[in-house]
Amino acid sequence: MKVTRNELPEREIELTVELIDDDLDPFMDRAYQKVGQQAKIDGFRKGKVPKSILNSYFGVEYIKNEAFNIGMPSIVQNAIVDNADESVGRPLVNIVSEDPLTLKINIGLEPKVTLDAYREIRVPKEPVTIPEEQIEAVITDLRWANSNWVPMERPVANDDQITIDLIAKVEDKEVANQTDVVYLVTEHNNRPVEGFHAYLLDMVLNDTKTFTIPFPEEYEDKEVAGKECEFTVTLKDVKAKDLAELDDEFAKGIGDGFETVAELREQIKNNLFENANTTAQREYENKILEELKNRSTLEASQILIDQETQAIIDNQAETLKQNKVNLEQYLSIIGKQPEEFQEEARQSATDRLTTTYALETLAELEGITITDEDLEKEISDAIEASEDRKEEIEKTFSTEDSRSNLRNMLSRRKTLERLIEIAEGENTSSKKGTKTVKPKTTKPKTTKAKATKAKPKSSK
Questions:
Q1: What predicted TM-score, i.e. pTM, was given to this entire model?
Q2: Which CATH number is 2-111 given?
C-alpha cells in the first residue's frame, strides 16, 4: 500500500492510497465466503462452492471488489494511523481509480485556537439574594399541599377543585361524554385544550354552560386538530383548600426535625440560596466561556465543522422523535426554514469547537496537567461517596478509554477553575509548573467513526 500525504488549507489533509493485490489478500477468504453464501449454483450447497468455480462464475475482479468492501475500514484506518494520527473526525473516502485501485482520504486535523489577551478577561459576579416573596411562596405551597379540600358554596375561582359533567362535540359529532370529572381549575391546566379553565371561572353549582374553543393545528388527536369544539359543562361540586395555620405545629408536621416556623423558614431560605447559587454559578461560567470564545480565533477543517453540525441536527431530531414530533413538523411550528435551522446549527458547531479547543489551548498556556495521582484521587472520592458501588466504579475506570475520558474531564474542570480565577482578577500572573504534553480534550461526537464505505464497479 502506497500512501502520499498532502497538506491542505484550513487544517485538512488528503491521503492518496494506492493498493496492490497483496493489500487485499487478508480479506479474500472472507470475500469468497460471503459470495459463496449468497451464490445459487446448481450442484453446490451454499457456502460449499470451490473458489475456482466462484472465480469462473463471478470473475476474480468481483471477488476482489468484495474483499475491498470488507477490508476498506481497516485499510482506511491503518492509512490514517500511520500517516495522520493527529486527525480528528470521520474521514471522507472516495475511489478515484480502479486500476490501480486508488483512494482519496480527506480528513480534518485537530483544530487550532489562537487566544487574544485572555488574561484580560474580567466578568463581574453578581451576589445571590433570596427575596422574602420567594420564601413566602414556598411556605404557601407547603401550606397548600398539607391542607384539605373543603366544599364551597361560591362561584368557581382559580385553584379550586371542581366536579363536572362534560360533553364535547366537533362538527355535531359527539367526541366525549363524561360524568363526575374531577378538574383542577388553574391556568397551568391545559386539558382538554388550552383556555378551557377560563370558561369555568364564576360558574355556580348546578349551572350548565356551553362554549366553543378551537383545537390547535398541532393537537395530538389529528381527527379534531384545527377544528372548533363545542363543550357543554355542568358544575356539580366546588372545593377549595382550607390552608393550614402557619404555626409551630405546622412546622413540626412537615417533618425533617423542624420545631418552629423560624427553623422551617431558615431551611427554605438555605435551600433556595443553594439552588440559586448553583444556577448563578453556571450562568457566570457560561459568561466567562463566552468571553473566552470571543477572544479566540478558530482554525478548523470544514469537514469537522460539517460533521459537528450534522451531529447537532441529529441530536435535535432524536429529542423531537421522543416527543413524537419530526424535525419538519418542529420547524413548521416555530416558523423556521430548514436553511435557517442549518445555519444556526453550523454556528453552534463552530462555537462548540471554538470553546473546546480554546480551553485546551488555555490549559497548555497555563501549564495545567492532570497526573495519575489526580485520577486516583477522583476515583477514590467517587468510591468514598458511593461505597456500595465500589466494584462497579473500579470496573468502570479499569480501561484506558475510561481513564482518558476522566483525565479530559478533570483537565476541563481544572482549566475552567483557572479561567474563573482570571475573570475574577485573582492571581493573573503565570502559573508555575513544568509544561508537559497537553491532555487531549474530549472531541465532538463525530470523532470516532468508521470510514464511509465506497464500492468500486464490479467487472464480470
A1: 0.72
A2: 3.30.70.1050
